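Reopening this ticket.

The earlier resolution said the output was attached, but the attachment link was broken on my side. Pasting everything inline this time so it's all in one place.
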Amino acid sequence: MTATGPDGTTPSGPAADATRVLVAGASGQTGIELLSVLRPTDLTVRATTRSYAKVDTLERHGADEVAVADFFEPRDAVAAVRDCDIVYCAVGTPPSYRHTIGGKLVDRTGVINLVTAALGTKVSFFVHQSAIGVGSSKSGLSLPARLLIRGSLRAKQDAEAALRRSGLAYTIVRPGRLTNAPPRDDLVVGEGGDSVAGSVPRADVARLMAAAPFTPDAENRTLEVVSRDGLAETPTNVVDIDWAFDRIEADRDRMQP
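Inline output:
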């Protein structure tokens, strides 16, 4: 059965019939924002964390189910995606020397394990948080910054490539420098790598990611995203996408006490 949006309309997009979603990397800052965005919708949300100590926190932020998973382990990825229609991937390596030297990073290995696990399941859409500075967007990040995190940038580039090759419907979101500022709802979205540069609130990125599977124009695209207030230079290759934000508005029945 196709769910209706909060205004009674029938949602559209590659994942219009979605009922259960996975937020991978939910205990990270963007993951927490995603839980907050998805909490009042009619979607059943499964969240993952590597720490049993964070289970209660994720439940308080709105997760209906919490799975403790290590995405370096393919079997954990398989269990996490089971019965899910959408994967929101916000996994990333915590601050460490690994961002510079690279090696075995969840930004590569974990994401690829999730993509592989999603193949052959009911997953209809995969939303992946990458970063400006990866691949064709390297000009959007200063050279010193690229050198400092060159290991993680290479890992994210490999993950992006694996997702594009997979055959899954996807949106890759490359945000600029993430901040904890309140949402501004003034995103500037570019495409093609050399498009936009600057900063963006995590809350705005989470809202855009949440809407992507229900937005036909976002399917199979790699998009750079910054806040208009956070622009560091004149944007180029800006795209106008009619994001399905109405699909992630509050479901009134779910919000009843």
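Reporter confirms the inline version is readable. The chain has eight helices and ten strands. Residues 41 and 241 are 22 Å apart (CA to CA).
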